[in-house]
Structures are given as structure tokens and as C-alpha cells.
């Protein structure tokens, strides 16, 4: 069966992707949290924004996307954010990045991030964002002004 006939040349139907090309989205699940949370610990602390997913294959990858509105109350204060799979930090001790206020107080902003995980599991997995103060003395407000944070897990097939 031909699909297109550019310049009267027939192109046959594509029945498969070339070798090495994959990445079908097999399922998408979402978690949200709507209450404001204040944290200032220098140890990783849960944001309570969590999503659970059960991969259908051990070869699947899980793409995590997350975001929220934040407020850092003091200048020269910064927070490190990371992602946990169940009780394990799946990134590194250094986290995924920093949230930093460099001038004034009450610095408010949205933040979105992504991480691709390879859990090698077919058991239920929970992903949660965590934060810790890396410097300064102010607090971080997650879901500033009672906004809603979101975390989305997408299972990507091999």
C-alpha cells in the first residue's frame, strides 16, 4: 500500500522504525499537591509532590517532569532540588540543580525540571521531589500562595 506519490514515485507504507529508534510512550500518570509548604532544612526534605507508576517492562525508562511555584524569602539563600525513586536519591548528592535568590527578599518564580530514569523494575515505583538549603538562612516556600505543583511520569518503551 502506498502512502505518498511525490513526482509519481511510490513510497511504500512504513511498517517499523529503523533499528535503534524506539521510545513509544506506554503510559502517563500525574501527581499534584496544592498546599503551601515551607522548608529550611539543610538535609533533603520531601516536597510531598509524588507520582506512582508501575512499569510494564524492566527495559522501560521513566521520564519524570515536575514543576511548581516557589518563593525564597531571603537574599543569598539557595536550595538544591533532586528526585527520589521510593527512598533513593536517583540523581546525585549534588542534586539536579539550584534555586537561588541573589537580591532582595521574597524572590518568587516557577521552576520546571526533567529526569530520565532507568529503574529496571516492573514493581510500583514512587517518584518525589526533594529540596535542601545549600546556603544562606532563608526558607523556601513550595506551592507559593497555595499554587499547585505537578509531577508527571511517562513510561517510555524500549
Labels describing this entry:
5-stranded antiparallel beta sheet, 158 residues, elongated, single chain, 6-stranded antiparallel beta sheet, Jelly Rolls, mainly beta
Give an account of the 3D structure.
It is a single chain. This protein is mostly beta strands. The chain has a single domain, classed as Jelly Rolls (Sandwich). Helices cover 0% and strands 55% of the residues. It is elongated. The mean pLDDT is 85.
Q: What's the short story on this structure?
A:
Strands 3, 4, 6, 10, 12 and 13 form a 6-stranded antiparallel sheet that branches.
**Main pleated-sheet profile:** 6 strands, antiparallel
CATH class: Mainly Beta
Count of separate structural domains: 1
Number of helices: 0
Oligomer: single chain
As for the CATH topology, it is Jelly Rolls
Helix content, binned percent: under 10%
> Cα distance, first to last residue?
27 Å
Parts with pLDDT < 50 across at least 5 consecutive residues? none
Shape: elongated
β-strand number: 13
Sequence-ordered SSE layout with sheet pairings:
Layout: E1 2-4, E2 11-12, E3 25-33, E4 37-39, E5 45-53, E6 61-72, E7 77-85, E8 88-89, E9 97-101, E10 107-117, E11 125-135, E12 140-142, E13 149-156
Antiparallel strand pairs: 1-2, 3-13, 4-12, 5-11, 6-10, 6-12, 6-13, 7-8, 7-9, 7-11
Amino acid at each position: 500500500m502506498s502512502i505518498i506519490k511525490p513526482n509519481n514515485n511510490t513510497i511504500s507504507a512504513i511498517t517499523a522504525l529503523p533499528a535503534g529508534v524506539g521510545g513509544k510512550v506506554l503510559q502517563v500518570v500525574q501527581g499534584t499537591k496544592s498546599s503551601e509548604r515551607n522548608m529550611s532544612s539543610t538535609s533533603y526534605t520531601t516536597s510531598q509532590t509524588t507520582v506512582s507508576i508501575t512499569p510494564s517492562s524492566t527495559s522501560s525508562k521513566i521520564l519524570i517532569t515536575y514543576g511548581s511555584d516557589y518563593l525564597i524569602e531571603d537574599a543569598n539563600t539557595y536550595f538544591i532540588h533532586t528526585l527520589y525513586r521510593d527512598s533513593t536519591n536517583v540523581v546525585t548528592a549534588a542534586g539536579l540543580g539550584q534555586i537561588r535568590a541573589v537580591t532582595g527578599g521574597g524572590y518568587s518564580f516557577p521552576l520546571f525540571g526533567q529526569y530520565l530514569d532507568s529503574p529496571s523494575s516492573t514493581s510500583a515505583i514512587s517518584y518525589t521531589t526533594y529540596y535542601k538549603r545549600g546556603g544562606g538562612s532563608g526558607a523556601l516556600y513550595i506551592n507559593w500562595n497555595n499554587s499547585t505543583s505537578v509531577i508527571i511520569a511517562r513510561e517510555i518503551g524500549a
